[in-house]
Specification:
Helix 6 (139-150) crosses helix 10. 45% of the residues are buried. The protein is globular. 43% of the residues lie in helices and 16% in strands. A six-stranded parallel β-sheet has the order 1-11-8-7-5-6, with helices on both faces. It has a three-stranded parallel β-sheet with strand order 3-2-4, with helices on both faces. Strands 9-10 form a two-stranded antiparallel sheet. By secondary structure, it is of the alpha/beta class. It folds into two domains: 28-114, Leucine Dehydrogenase, chain A, domain 1 (Rossmann fold); 139-264, Rossmann fold, CATH 3.40.50. The site of NADP nicotinamide-adenine-dinucleotide phosphate has 25 residues, from helix 10. Residues 140, 163-166, 168-170, 187-191, 196, 209-212, 230-233, 263-264, 267 line the site of NADP nicotinamide-adenine-dinucleotide phosphate.
Length: 286
């Protein structure tokens, strides 16, 4: 049976570490504020924002919560981002995605000061990732790298397969694993479906981030592999599940993340770490 990678426990430790740093920085007069902007009334997004604000409270991170109506214009949103860029009390800015259709997400992300881009989505931060330079990294893949560290899984020399190539998960994940000297394959919707199982079977580290419930089954997994399930999907009964069929996968894998309780909690916790990192970088403390 596989080792279950306990994202919940690791997230609690990560938050404690962030909270200790926040206290230290506050003693030096450095504010680690996080501004969270939510546009519209999407219930899913509102739930995510509430969870992030709770995490802030737990870590002693002062938060500013902006709930804007769905009809907010691009100019109004850009103006708020501009104000927050200039606010010394605000170390990090997070605009909850997705935005209502009439708003230009790329323009909003690009307008955030890269030093305050705690989601790590700004082109400058993604460029730094490509160049191997320090910068704010997207929370989901950054949290997965923390999991590898915590469980002594060294990607060096391993075959890593990432299923999915989004800008927030698959692509940065592949770059982070490459930086740790893994050999990378990235599968996506154009990958020959007849080849996908074989590609997955070559993985010592398999990261599933395609958003298809339970697509990756036990027989697709190399015995002993580390399986990271990013998916947050609903199964045929409406129950939360991942992109990996956990029941069959855990019989083959060496280590595996559950859903829930794996990547999700670590993603949230890494946001807190990123706020601390942003505050430190802004004050020349890195
Ligand atoms: P996304 O933007 O929808 O990207 C999905 C990726 O999967 C795309 O690159 C797509 O390929 C690829 N794909 C789709 N069908 C495929 C198939 N049959 N075979 C191989 N690849 C396929 O999704 P995302 O934002 O990266 O999220 C992926 C999953 O992770 C979702 O379930 C999401 O809810 C979850 N998620 C969880 C967390 C967390 O904290 N736990 C964070 C973020 C996302 P193309 O590029 O060709 O379209």
């Amino acid at each position: 049976m596989a080792t279950i990678i306990d994202g919940k426990a690791l997230a609690a430790t990560t938050r404690e570490r962030a909270a200790a740093e926040v206290t230290k920085l506050a003693a030096q007069g450095i504010a680690c504020g996080l501004a969270v902007i939510l546009v519209g009334d999407d219930q899913g997004s509102a739930t995510y924002v509430r969870a992030k604000l709770r995490d802030c409270e737990q870590c002693g991170i002062p938060s500013k919560d902006y709930k804007l109506p769905a009809e907010t214009s691009q100019e109004e949103l850009m103006e708020l981002v501009g104000q927050l860029n200039a606010d010394n009390e605000v170390a990090g800015i997070l605009v909850q995605m997705p935005l209502p259709k009439h708003l230009d997400e790329e323009a909003v992300v690009a307008a955030i000061d890269p030093k305050k881009d705690v989601d790590g989505f700004h082109p400058e931060n993604l460029g730094k990732l490509v160049r191997g330079l320090p910068g704010l990294r997207p929370c989901t893949p950054a949290g997965i790298m923390e999991m590898f560290d915590a469980y002594d899984i060294d990607p060096a020399g391993k075959n890593a397969v990432i299923v999915g190539r989004s800008s927030i998960v698959g692509k940065p994940m592949s770059l982070m694993l490459l930086a740790k000297n893994a050999t990378i394959s990235v599968a996506h919707s154009h990958t020959d479906p007849r080849e996908l199982a074989r590609i997955c079977q070559s993985a010592d580290i398999l990261v599933a981030a395609c958003g298809i419930p339970k697509m990756i089954k036990g027989p697709w997994i190399k015995p002993g592999a580390t399986v990271i399930d990013v998916g947050m999907d609903r199964d045929e009964n409406g129950k939360l599940c991942g992109d990996v069929d956990f029941a069959s996968a855990e019989l083959v894998a060496g280590a595996i993340t559950p859903v829930p309780g794996g990547v999700g909690p670590m993603t949230r916790a890494m946001l807190m770490s990123n706020v601390v990192l942003a505050a430190k970088a802004q004050h020349g403390l890195l």
